[in-house]
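Sample A.
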Amino acid sequence: MIFEGKAVKVSQLETGVVLVTLDLQGESVNKFNLLTLQELGEAVKAVKTLPNVAGVVFNSAKDVFVVGADITEFTTWFTLDDNELADKLREVHKTFNEIADLPYPTVAAINGIALGGGFELCLACDYRVMADSAKVGLPETQLGIYPGWGGTIRLPRLIGVDNACEWICGAGQKRSADALKDGAVDAVVAQDNVLESSLHLIQQVVDGKLKYQQRRQENNANMVFSPIEKMMIFESVRGVVGAKAGKHYPAPMVAIKTIEKVIGQTREKAIETEIAGFVKLAKGPVAKALVGLFLKDQQIKKTAGQFSKGAERVKQAAVLGAGIMGGGVAYQSSSKGTPIIMKDIRNEALELGLSEANKLLGGQVSRGRMTAEKAMKALNGITPALSYGEFDHVDLVVEAVVENVNVKKAVLAETENHISADTILTSNTSTISITELAKNLQRPENFCGMHFFNPVHRMPLVEVIRGEKTSDAAIARTVSYAQAMGKTPIVVNDCPGFLVNRVLFPYFGGFSAMMKEGADFQIIDKVMEKFGWPMGPAYLLDVVGLDTAFHADEVMAKGFPDRMQHEGINVIDKLFEVERFGQKNQKGFYRYENDRKGKPKKIFDAEIHSILAPTVVSKTELTEEDIIARMMIPLCIETVRCVEEGIVGSPAEADMGLIYGIGFPPYLGGALHYLDQMGLQAFCDLADRFSHLGKLYEPTTKMRAMAQNNDTYYGSAV
């Protein structure tokens, strides 16, 4: 062994080929932490001293190559001053440049995932051999930064400007076929053959069949375009990327600007250009928010793992109710490997549920994400049923019937008589108290909430709700099942609306109050979408369903009468009264028609203003700032209440619940991060401007105390 560290080893074969093997001890994956980078630099220095080297293969002893930088360590870099951060980046560039300049051919043997800095290491090599099951990519723009170890410099020279911009700005993980097609890798082989093929490639160079030095010259040369060519390429790229990224996410557009500069620069100059852009982004508020979300996501997954530790695996599930929601749950369960019984009292409902699952599976097949064989297996894993005949061997039941407390109580009590004593019973209620629903149950300790969000296949969050008598075992199995379904579960305590809907309805309350004052819902939608929400409140209500919102609003008003009750009829009441339920019956605030793909297309309906006219009691002029404040203040205060009352376990879980559950703008980092960035004193001052609107706009006593002490919800953490 030539070099042996705790993350990197160097050995030499009899053929003269040197193996630089990445194997971070104590970890299931390789990642670039400070130790690995240091040892990589030492390993390269050791390689440079060796005689009779035929070539170097960078490979991994794990199932992945390198998953990227260890963000938990590198966030400390972002707190350094600009010059210190730039120096840190230069150190890594020095190592990667030494790899690129080794006086013999180099190959990256990509046996598994190679992302971020891991893929930038691959780009520093002359050749890349990739496993057919592997994925590569530069996902840094998802964190509000861009590749900082040569990715913006080397990738355009390798695959062209257009492709490089798409790879970097899209932040996607590329499958082997796409990577080969774009020219990012030189060969795709079976995973077991990656190292053997890499050694064979080195031998081809030794035999004179491949000219690695010529390749280096091409990849290091400036890219030459005429002024018109360059303008057309980058204006086109800016148009496409700018439309997707939006103004709140600067990293993709800064990446394009950097690529435009570095393609015509020497390597040394290009490195300084890349570093300057990286430092600017890393020190900005969006990177702080998005990196924070990444860390919070890791935290809530770790918390979920603690909840599910020791849980019995759900081998057979069941869902009660076979509508769109039931069909979505059935699809998600079966497609992820857990067979499920889908029960309803009506055959046509079962057909609808199966149709929904079949449609989703067909979409996966058509997009190449699932084979037809796997889709058929998933569909066969859904057993439609009109009775409880096979429920005696079910491990967990999801009740997904109509959102009515009496109906749910009756269905749950009936179901309990047909399941074993240790089967976990859950309710997919969105607002109704789990403790209340458990009152008629014989085994309330085996009952909890399992709240999915619609559409089930797209929304990552599942709220697992603990009632007064819910056991730890029930929570553990439910969390475990949610994880098996590919979802992110957050455990919350019981109250009307739990976390997400309890926070969402004050947001809707702010909207309804403005509508009473004569506001135009289209303007409110545009302002909030411009602010960063995926859809404005009126559009969101149409998607949720005005009938669902009406019933949930009643539950919330009863649960929190001091701030969620309202006088007179509001817009939700009115649209429910005239049966404008939103997308589900193609008319709500907007009218809907299906486009060519069968998706509902939003259209303005001229009748709506006359329909809503009886709900208007005054006329107030509202600025954009007023609209944002009146929407955001109630949401933020209610989120704080949920944390203060212990409904949710931590600020991180609260923020991620809003990000994953209702599309809170990610660039703001979540409601509590948003408060930290604004400053609690500034927020309380803003809320006091609207105190005449009632208790929804009244900060808690603890918030005011924290404001006085300049306290934050996340302390000094990034």
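Sample B, a different protein:
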Amino acid sequence: MSAPGRVVALLVSHDGARWLPAVLDGLRAQTRPVDAVVAVDTGSKDGSADLVESALGDLLVGGVERVTGATSYPAAVALGLEKAAAAHPDAHLDVHPDSHVDRDGDWAWLLHDDSNPDPRALEELLAAAAEQPDAAVLGPKLREWPSLRRLLELGVTISGTGRRETGLERGEYDQGQHDAVRTVLAVNTAGMLVRRHVLEELDGFDRQLPIFGNDVDFGWRAAAAGHRTIVVPQAIVFHAEAAHRGARRTPLTGRHTHYQERRAALYTLLANSRARSLPFQLVRLALGTVLRVIGFLLVRSVGEALDELAALVSVYSSPREVHAARRERQERQVREPADVRRLLAPPWLPYRHGLDFVSDLAAAATHQAADVAERRRAAKAEHDPSSMAARRRELDDDEEYADTGVVARFLTNPVAVALAVVLVALLVAAREAYGAVAGGGLSPVPAGVGDWWRLHVEHWHPLGQGTGVPAPPHLLPLALVGTVLGTTGAVSALLVLAAPVALWGSWRLLRVVGRFVSPQGAPRWLLLWGSTTWSLVALTSGAWGDGRLGPVVTVAVLPWLAHAALGFADPEPDRRWRAAWRTGVLLALTTAFAPVAWPFAALLGLVVLAASYAVVRSGLRDRSVWAPPLVALAVPLLLLAPWWLPSLLERAAEGLLLEPGRLPVPTVAPLDLVAGRLGDLGAPWWLGVVVAALAVLALVPRATRVPVLVAWIVALVAAVVAALLGTVTLSLATVETGPALGFLVVVLQGAFVVAAVLGGQGAPRRVAAAVTVVAAVVPLGGLAWSLAGADASLDEDPRSGIPAYMVQAATRGDDHGILVVRGSVEDGLTWVVRRGDGVTLGEDEVLALAPEDDALTRDVQQLASRPTPALVTELGDRGIEYVVLPAPADGAVAAMLDATGGLVQASAADPATRAWQVDRPVADDALDGPRSWLRVVLLLVQGIGLVWVLVLCAPTTQRALERRRR
């Protein structure tokens, strides 16, 4: 049974020629024909309008109405209804509010140019309208086109976070499981059958929703106005969702479909929510947008993340539009908000979607790992026909030992037991780093992580007499870790975990490198030797015991950096680009702690590219071959711009060749470079020489000579850079030192270890067994030396010599400085101004590069020879409250200061220490310095660049892959 009344189909098209033939066939094939068709074309350039005119003939009212592409969907619908009313005034389809005739039997059937109705669609919709006469809006079951069986929508609602909810599982097929007619909040405009007087009463669709979200908003407004919306599953429409899937772009969406969809969702929620819940909704949507942005960044969907922010800003910056929409809806509201609320999505649904997102991330990481493993198995099977049989034997062994338990399998694996022993030994060897550490080249950490953040952000540092030398680059990663663990925990964790992380990373690297030689890879005992030897480099070199963070971090990060750089040899361009971003991030982290890493990487990259060009010239013509290494080199320049650029501008370029820690840096002789030692620090020299000798012997086997030569190229580049830097002397204000060569020492040892492992893999078994006895001395000797705790100096107290009450007074502000003068008139005097809680990690690097204050130097000289009250006043103007001569104080200088007006003797715990307080007003603006907008810009570039690069390094979820394929 059909409902009485006239049905006018309203078809809106825009560049839909690829779908329109089927849509028009479906429209003409309706078992209950439409009474008329009104067509509106919004600026199509593919002949859509002509196609509609030629296909519909007499059904078409007045030809196709052609308007510009900027015409919104609500405007197109309103224009179509006006045209139908003008052509058939007796059909009661006018949309003017002064019309008083009975128009309840008139219907408008909305169709898109990509929505193909089933032949019985209109008949089923009208039959449902006859059975349920209180229904004002009816919608069909939407199936995906062209699959035809996958469900898209059976009614739609919206969640409290603005997500469009259909109640369907992802990719659910139609098996009749949702075929009950039911009341819903809204139905899609693709196939919507709506009573004409309802459209007229609600003023059609909201013009603030030009293309997306107008169906949900219309359904919400209709429900609030007392009208009922139902979905009729027996009526079927096939929908291509061209605009949503990006298959078609219009002037209303451009390339930012997600922006339009998200803006529509935010506007719909704010315009229709209850008044008392509006403040909560505003806060919730803002916080939810931040979380969604983070989520999109995690799955490398930068465009969607920016669209999210843009949509929030667009809606929140237009409060008048939202207020006007809310006032209009309140005027028409007749139903209680609680009645409408039952049609909305359940409040717990967003949390389930959050769990789904986490599972998507886990699945993406799992799929990526499975993909790598599958490629390795395929390569192994290609080179070894017997690998399948070996795999069967492995499966049989797994079944045989499945009941023995994990512990039993662990205890019966000698390599696993040995690795566990090595790990425990490394943690025991790092026992002095549990807790607060300072001494040697390591300065104490500040009391709070805020000091690190402030030092990183500010342009002018109130250190000494103030300086514009930029904060060192390693301060940012330390501050990030310190935000979670605290300053003491950050440095302690770095020292304790450096060797275990290096053990893990070197095992992965050597396993992959070994597969370049043979599909089976290197034997596990060889991997054990190589990874253990590598993990001990930080300890045996002496860098760990002296608190030199540069080499320590290099040992931990370098295997991961080399592993990422191996991706440049991947045959697939996408993986080469992914390797570029990951290599760039790790190179930036290494450069932050060891600045010499960047020039070394640049020189090594040039050498490798030149060698590749000499071997395969045609290979470098592809941009995806040579561009990723260049991108990896450019990433550190971007991420570390707030450090290296101001260093050049402030004439502190010496910092580009130094590492974290106090000066001078340890000198490295040629033998120390080969033996992997920093000067006189570290284990006996012969342990490192054994590794170098094994690397030389690795050149003998022919099977592995080529990859061993590659390792030697890396070693030779490191040696050349070390030789060049060894000729440089850096003259700073307080000390002369050579460049920090700790990074090159570590690189050379790493190259030797890789060469030795490859050589052992290619050597005959008898020779390898004989050499193994000698090689085992290296890790065993290194572990024994490390466990003995030799040459460690991380338990010193660098804060002695200054009375405690003065230190406490200095923490009240940077203007309460302490002038510390050491030495004697005969031997020479040195001075330093202590402020705050003293020179801490990060500040010592800034002070070392700061130029000498010649004026204060002259004041100190005059203070030791001819002090005057005017000079004391000048000290107060410089923000100096105390003068201290630590033990042993020069008696002649102390006698002069005792007799100087304006200096009051102060107490000191050590009788040999003399101290005075400046009895003059202390200037609170003595250390004020200029502000720099360049610093702000560079920090913004660093922050945005860091997020951007990390996003490009992240795994891609299956959903993101599907969106890209579309």
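Observation for Sample B: The two ends are 42 Å apart (CA to CA).
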